[in-house]
Amino acid sequence: MSDVATDFDDYRFTAIGLFAEAFTGLNSRFAAQFEEHRVSPVEFEVLMRLARSPQNRLRMTDLAGQTSLSTSGVTRVVDRMDRSGLIRREACPSDRRSSYAVITEAGLARLEEILPGHLELVQRWFIDQLPPEKLTQLLESLRTIRDAVNPCATAGSSEDDAARVAPAG
User: Fold this and answer.
1) For residue 4, is it within any domain?
2) What's the mean pLDDT when you consider all of the chain?
3) Where in this chain does the entry annotate a coiled-coil region (predicted)?
């Protein structure tokens, strides 16, 4: 038994617990809609990351940094999605060890099918729950925390990053 008494009412437990409960609750609201469209939550996340990136592509390592997947996990998901035609791999011309994941027309079409219902759910269960000023504060706070705990979360997602890795000419 420890000599230090633990305060189970510590506000830090409450803060992280509420965050986890909200995240889990939102994910469960989205799950049925993803199933309707035959896409897993991680596949949806990969499609969205690629669709929102310059030239609809990210280096595999950047994709791993932006998602909840390890490098090997990204490889497995990308391989599966490549076989289903939603994304494809491209070699990196400047680094033979690197490759890109690129969303295909079929992947963009799948997103077009999913997004109206998904955005409706996001609006209902996330956006509409807060007045605009509180939502702005929440988004700023989430960015601050995200940048502290996952500094790679935006790697490859800006035009500057794309120019840095794009072939010359």
Assistant:
1) no
2) 88
3) none
Output the six-digit token pair for 148.
């502290």
The pair of structure tokens assigned to 129 is 């729950």
Provide the CATH number for the domain around residue 144. 1.10.10.10
Distance, in Å, from the CA atom of 86 to the CA atom of 107, rounded to the nearest integer, reads 4
Per DSSP, 2 falls in state: -
Please check the confidence at residue 168 and state whether its pLDDT lies above 90.
Answer: no
- The reported pLDDT for the residue numbered 68 is 79
Total tally of structural domains belonging to the chain: 1
User: Is the residue at 2 inside a domain?
Assistant: no
Q: Return the half-sphere exposure (C-beta side, CA atoms, 13 A cut-off) of residue 3.
A: 0
Q: How far apart are CA 64 and CA 73, in angstroms?
A: 8
| Inside any domain, residue 6 | no
Residue reference for tokens 């997947």? 69
Q: Cβ(57)–Cβ(102) under 8 Å?
A: yes
Say if 23 falls within a structural domain: yes
Task: Identify the domain containing residue 161 by its residue range.
Answer: 11-165
For the whole model, what pTM was predicted? Answer: 0.80
Give the mean pLDDT of 88-113.
Answer: 92
**Average pLDDT of the residues in 108-134:** 97
Q: Which residues contact 141 (CB under 8 A, 6 or more apart)?
A: none
